[in-house]
Amino acid sequence: MKRILVAEDEQNIRQMLVLNLNRAGYEVVEADNGTVALEKYDKHKGNFDIALLDIMMPGIDGIELCKMLREKSDTLGIIMLTAKGTESDKIVGLNTGADDYITKPFSVTELLARIDSVYRRVKLSKGSATSSGGTEKLIHGKFALNLRTRNLEFDDKDVELTQTEFRIVQAFFEAPDNTISRNDLLTKVWGENFYGDDKVVDVNIRRLRMKIEPDPSKPQFIVTVWGLGYRFN
């Protein structure tokens, strides 16, 4: 059973989400605020595939809850729900570790497509080690991508990656020294049916640079090839 944590303080929206997610085959654990959501996450010992978090909630808001859940798990798929459509809200959500966001009002069809897309990425990330023909690490220059732990190793240090960051680095390692376009990264990481804004690629690249670059403003490893895409040196 696919299990999803739904944290939404508006009862009508939460009930609609629970109904449609149940129909789509998800086991839903619901919470009406961030504090209760965190308690239920811990009660179930983090045994969730997806967390659907409303940004504007009493107590612990969605942004803070996202940070806390990401500290507990790198493999949990996190989608932010927001009534705000501003660019800053989207970027803040992604920078705190969310994999995707969706703005209210939304259609059930779009929401389920986005959730299924994140769920597939979660399962792909978890299954990478077993589906790689016994290979535990992918090596690229001084970097090693550990398929079992989903960590990036560099200079004897482990860099913890979210499942989305892991999929991005894996895409780079599978095409060493090649430039990958933003659209190709979207397809490889988010899937062909991704509904969201393609700026999600840029935000995740920026987050990766913060983790591995000596000077993220002057990247040495993940470089921009203007007009074409990105390359991992």
What does this 3D model show about the protein?
- By secondary structure, the chain is an alpha/beta fold.
- It folds into two domains: 2-126, Rossmann fold, CATH 3.40.50.2300; 137-232, Winged helix-like DNA-binding domain superfamily/Winged helix DNA-binding domain (Arc Repressor Mutant, subunit A).
- It contains eight helices and eleven strands.
- It has helices at residues 11-23, 34-43, 62-72, 87-95, 108-127, 163-173, 182-190, 199-212; strands at 2-7, 26-31, 50-54, 77-82, 100-103, 137-140, 143-146, 151-154, 157-160, 222-225, 229-232.
- The strands form three sheets. The chain has a five-stranded parallel beta sheet with strand order 2-1-3-4-5, with helices on both faces. It has a four-stranded antiparallel beta sheet with strand order 6-7-8-9, covered by helices on one side. Strands 10-11 form a two-stranded antiparallel sheet.
- β1 (2-7), α1 (11-23) and β2 form a beta-alpha-beta unit.
- The longest helix has 20 residues, at 108-127.
- It is globular, with a radius of gyration of 18 Å.
How much helical structure, as a percent, in the residues?
40-55%
Spans where pLDDT lies below 50 across 5 or more residues:
129-133
CATH fold-level assignment of the largest domain: Rossmann fold
The H-level CATH homologous superfamily of the largest domain, spelled out, is: Response regulator
DSSP helical segment count:
8
* Highest-level CATH class of the largest domain: Alpha Beta
Beta-strand portion reads: 15-25%
Overall pLDDT level:
85
Tell me the span between the first and last alpha carbons.
40 Å
